[in-house]
Design goal:
Length: 335
């Protein structure tokens, strides 16, 4: 899967040549390409983020970059002297880049993964009780590379957890050893057990035992009142669901934590304006919150060098050999 390959929009052929060049107002000359298979002519920006955009590319890049560094929507519009609706259109188109890169990430195979899971909360439209808010965001991040696999928002209900766990299931099918570690939230393991399980037969009569798939481990660290409830006392470190008997590799108690994702959540609160505390920059609608989360996901995983690993998370994970430049990012085929 080559996300940078240019294809004919008519027959999807890779065989084309430059027919001529045409001038643009702010972005220099661009090429008109001619397909050698069907003789279709198309611009080099066809089916890309830059299609029909007339603003300077460097301005678009600076606006989106500032949006992932904590600048709110209205503040960005005032700072760059452009309309709010213009920025909204850019972010909606950028979400299509997220869709392409997300599918590209899940198409790879991995040897081993340790996924940390946690949630963030913010207000949406107005201040309501947390259990009624749509501002809950589930984050699933690989511990070693800091690559974020899931960044979805909604109400903190079963549907949101199931949507996140389906991403975990896709990763299970692409890896030989996957560990999921959460801070006290048992629904991760329970939903995963319902979706991703298998029956293990034995020599005894009766129904076969239901376990997680081979190579999958789930651990929970119960904190505070979660390990000191009124009923039966829960263990501080526990596996919420039975594992396959052939699953190897025990997780040490010292490794059962979500410290890395907690640090990432703190960074997200600084860099994503809807998650700011005690301000009025919270999201007005859930679609707007998810839109900026998609933009942040692309920048975090493919553009911005991580402070700890000194590399882009996608490179650390092995998805790319080098980080994507903003020119390459804008030229990715969206369909």
């Amino acid at each position: 899967m080559n996300i940078f390959a240019k294809k004919c929009p008519s027959c999807l052929s890779l065989n084309f040549k430059v027919k001529k060049y045409y001038p643009t107002k702010n972005n220099g000359n661009r090429a008109i390409l001619e397909c050698q298979e069907c003789n279709c002519r198309f611009s080099e920006t066809t089916n890309t983020f830059l299609c029909n955009l007339k603003k300077p590319i460097i301005m678009i890049w600076n606006v989106l970059n500032c949006r992932t560094e904590g600048l709110s929507l209205n503040a960005a519009a005032r700072s760059f002297g452009i309309s709010v609706n213009t920025i909204l259109d850019w972010e909606k188109k950028f979400s299509r880049i997220y869709n392409v890169l997300f599918l590209y990430s899940l198409a790879h195979s991995f040897m081993t993964l340790i996924i940390e899971g946690d949630e963030l909360y913010t207000k949406v439209k107005k201040n309501v009780d947390p259990d009624k808010s749509e501002g809950w965001t589930i984050v699933l991040m690989d511990r070693a590379t800091r690559f974020i696999f899931e960044l979805k928002c909604g109400k903190k209900d079963r549907r949101l957890f199931k949507k996140a766990i389906k991403t975990i299931v896709k990763l299970i099918n692409k890896t030989n050893d996957l560990s999921l570690i959460t801070d006290g939230e048992r629904r991760y393991g329970n939903v995963l057990f319902e979706i991703c399980n298998e029956l293990v037969g034995n020599d005894n009569s009766g129904q076969p035992k239901k376990t997680l798939k081979k190579g999958v481990k789930v651990r929970i660290k119960n904190k505070g009142s979660q390990s000191r409830n009124k009923g039966a006392k829960r263990a501080k470190y526990e596996a919420p669901c039975p594992e396959h008997p052939e699953t190897t590799g025990e997780i040490k108690n010292n490794d059962i934590h979500a410290n890395h994702i907690e640090a990432q959540n703190a960074a997200l609160r600084r860099k994503c304006s809807p998650f700011r505390r005690k301000t009025n920059t919270y999201a007005k609608v859930i679609t707007g919150l998810q839109r900026i989360l998609d933009v942040y996901w692309v920048f975090h995983n493919f553009i911005r060098v991580h402070y700890t690993t000194k590399e882009v998370p996608a490179v650390c994970l092995g998805l790319l050999t080098s980080r994507i430049s903003w020119k390459e990012l804008f030229c990715i085929e969206l369909s």
